[in-house]
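Worked example 2:
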Amino acid sequence: MNSSIFLASDSTCQTYTKEQAPQAGWGQFLPEYLPEYTICNHAIGGRSSRTFIEEGRLKDIEKEIQKGDYLLIQMGHNDATIQKPERYTDPYTDYKQYLKQYIEVARSHYATPVLITPVARLHYVLGEFLIDFNDYCNAMKEVAEEEECILLDLMSLSIAHLTDVGLDQATTYYMVDVNGTDYTHFTEQGANQIAAIIAKQLHLIVTA
């Protein structure tokens, strides 16, 4: 039986309907690059590491995940929304504790957790793509070290790719190219590219 990859994340990863196109999440393109796995995309917009758990979404994953599966955890965008206290987490305290709950759920079912740092927003200043959510990226790296968990540094990987393709091409990856305002969410082109980056890293992890 094929292994499954479960996705616990937010709007940057979730699957969108055809009516919502061209907005897309990287999770919906992952099956194209990892056809040997069943992709179970539980990502949904507006959720932080905290609210995803509070709403029972991690419990839903726990009911299905099995030995040999993977749990990909990309959280941070909504954790950083301090003006929305119901979703906010402090990076070095409760954010880290919530991340450890995801790891525990995966390992308790003999599945492999993979922490994924937040993906880059289109934040370009003075000729440089800037890193957002720096504290959350660092806190996640600390958790990976403390828990001896696989880490995929998507922030660094996505910034490197945006730098490589340049601002004009990078802009087409984000909904700002469509509506002029959204520097966070992906177009189908952008989501597809991020999925390709993640799949490449997962292949390296699995074959290591």
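The chain is about 40% helix and 15% strand. The domain at 4-207 is CATH 3.40.50.1110 (Rossmann fold).
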